[in-house]
C-alpha cells in the first residue's frame, strides 16, 4: 500500500528553503519513504523547504557532503518528482557535490494543477528560481545541471535562449525531450480533443528495465499523477517550434540516450540536438529505456562512469 503522504499539508508546513530548521516528523517520514534520507551517508546534511515562483509554491531539497567542491542541480521528468531521484542524488554526493533539486509545478510536493503547466516558459522561471536558491544557499561553483526527459528539455531551452551563466558548469541531458514518440498522432488527437476534454487517463509504460521501479511507480508511489492534461500537451506543442527554430549554441552538453526508449522520438531528437550543440558529447546505450535515472544498475553505472570522467 502507498505511504500516507499529504503533499498539500506537508508543503504548507515547510519553511523557506534558505531557513535552517529542524525537520518535522512528517518531513522525515517523506524522506525515509523515498530513501532521500540516505542513511548510509552519515555525514550528509539535508534540508527540505519551499520557494515562490509566480503563483506556485515550489518544494525543493538540498544535500551537502562534508566538503563539497561543486554542485549538482537536478530537474526531473514529466510525471516524476524528487522522491524518484535518490540514485542521482547519491551519485552526486559520491562525487563531492552539493545537490539541489525541486519538484516542478504540478508534480510531487509542489503546488499547481496536477501534471499540467500553462506554458513551458513557466519551467524557465522555476529554473531561475532554483538558481536563486543556489545563490542564497551559497552552493559551491560550478553548478552542474542535470535534466531527465522534460527536465532535459528545460535545461536545453536554458542553454539555447538564456545569456551565459558564469556559475554554470556542465549540463547533463538524460533522454532529453524535444519531440515525444508518435508526436504527429498525439498532436492531431490534441487538436481534436482540446475543446471538449481537459484531461485523459494516464497510461503507464514500461519505461525502465528495473521491475522494482516499475512496480513502485504503478502501485506504491502516492505522488504519481494518473491523468494527462490536454493543457500540458498544448504547452508542449507551442514549445517544440521554439527549440527547433533556435540558433546553434557553443555549449557542450553531455547527452545520454537509451536506444530502447519508447517515450521520446530519440531518432529524431538526437540529430536536432547534435546540430544545435556541435560540441556535445553523446553516449548511446543500446539496452536502456527512457527512465535513465531509474534504469537497471549496470546501465546507471555505465553512464555514471561516462559522466565521472568528464566532471572530475
TrEMBL record:
Which superkingdom, per the lineage?
Bacteria
Where's the Serine aminopeptidase S33 domain?
A: 67-297
Q: Does the keyword Hydrolase apply?
A: yes
Which GO MF terms are attached to this record? hydrolase activity
Write down the InterPro entries for this protein, in alphabetical order.
AB_hydrolase_1 (IPR000073), AB_hydrolase_fold (IPR029058), Hydrolase_4 (IPR022742), MAG_DAG_Lipase (IPR051044)
Keyword entries, A-Z: Hydrolase
Entry-linked Pfam families: Hydrolase_4 (PF12146)
The name of this protein is: Alpha/beta hydrolase
Amino acid at each position: 500500500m502507498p505511504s500516507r503522504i499529504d503533499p498539500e499539508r506537508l508543503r504548507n508546513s515547510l519553511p523557506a528553503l534558505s531557513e535552517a530548521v529542524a525537520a518535522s516528523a512528517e518531513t522525515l517520514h517523506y524522506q525515509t519513504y523515498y530513501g532521500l534520507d540516505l542513511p548510509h551517508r552519515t555525514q550528509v546534511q539535508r534540508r527540505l523547504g519551499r520557494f515562490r515562483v509566480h503563483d506556485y509554491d515550489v518544494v525543493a531539497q538540498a544535500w551537502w557532503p562534508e566538503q563539497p567542491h561543486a554542485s549538482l542541480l537536478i530537474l526531473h521528468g514529466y510525471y516524476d518528482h524528487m522522491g524518484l531521484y535518490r540514485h542521482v542524488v547519491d551519485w552526486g554526493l559520491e562525487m563531492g557535490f552539493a545537490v539541489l533539486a525541486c519538484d516542478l509545478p504540478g508534480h510531487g510536493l509542489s503546488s499547481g494543477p496536477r501534471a499540467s503547466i500553462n506554458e513551458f516558459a513557466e519551467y524557465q522561471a522555476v529554473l531561475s528560481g532554483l538558481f536563486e536558491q543556489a545563490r542564497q544557499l551559497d552552493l559551491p561553483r560550478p553548478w552542474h545541471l542535470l535534466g531527465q526527459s522534460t527536465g532535459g528539455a528545460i535545461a536545453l531551452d536554458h542553454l539555447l535562449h538564456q545569456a551565459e551563466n558564469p556559475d554554470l558548469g556542465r549540463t547533463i541531458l538524460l533522454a532529453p525531450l524535444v519531440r515525444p514518440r508518435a508526436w504527429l498522432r498525439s498532436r492531431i488527437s490534441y487538436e481534436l480533443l482540446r475543446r471538449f476534454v481537459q484531461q485523459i487517463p494516464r497510461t503507464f509504460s514500461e519505461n525502465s528495465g528495473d521491475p522494482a521501479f516499475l512496480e513502485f511507480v504503478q502501485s506504491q508511489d502516492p505522488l504519481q499523477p494518473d491523468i494527462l492534461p490536454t493543457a500540458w500537451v498544448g504547452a508542449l506543442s507551442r514549445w517544440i517550434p521554439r527549440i527547433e527554430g533556435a540558433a546553434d549554441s557553443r555549449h557542450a552538453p553531455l547527452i545520454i540516450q537509451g536506444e530502447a526508449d519508447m517515450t521520446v522520438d530519440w531518432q529524431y531528437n538526437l540529430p536536432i540536438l547534435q546540430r544545435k550543440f556541435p560540441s556535445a558529447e553523446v553516449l548511446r546505450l543500446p539496452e536502456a529505456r527512457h527512465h535513465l535515472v531509474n534504469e537497471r544498475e549496470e546501465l546507471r553505472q555505465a553512464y555514471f562512469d561516462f559522466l565521472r570522467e568528464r566532471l572530475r
